Amino acid sequence: MKKEQANVILDLSFEFALDIIEYCELLEEQRKYVIARQLLKSGTSIGANVREAQSAESRADFIHKCKISAKEAEETAYWLALCERSKNYPTKHELSVKLESIILILSKIISTAKSRGKKS
Fold first, then answer.
1. Count of beta carbons in the 10 Å neighbourhood of residue 46
2. How far apart are CA 42 and CA 21, in angstroms?
């Protein structure tokens, strides 16, 4: 029987989405609804797009879906930075640290996929 390989970006983005859900629930408890909704959408979309990329129809489609995920990650970084810099928001700096790792991995995946496409 073939053992499944771990997919680091799938795992990290899924765990990050769970962390974002928890943080957004905290924001909503504190009546920070607008930011909570924006952060929930972008923060969970990262993993959704990574997962969708796993079933891409072509290398170009895979790269496109990974780029969407990277854009969502950048948007999430923006909302987290706002929360960290705002006086009346609870902060969870570890979310930004985890997100930086995700952004770096996505960047590497995209550049690798692009370079492999040129060699073919």
1. 29
2. 11
b/e sequence 5-27, b meaning 16+ C-beta within 10 Å: eeeebeebbbebbebbeebbeeb
pLDDT digits (tens, 9 = 90+) for 57-83: 999 999 999 999 999 999 999 999 999
Tokens matching residue 30: 């504190």
Note the Cα 10 to chain centre separation in Å.
10
Q: What angle do CA 68, 110, 50 make, to 5 degrees?
A: 45
Asked whether the beta carbons of 40 and 94 are under 8 A apart, the reply is no
Residue 63 in tokens: 């790269």
pTM of the model: 0.91
The full DSSP string for 67-102 is HHHHHHHHHHHHHHHHHHHSTTS---HHHHHHHHHH
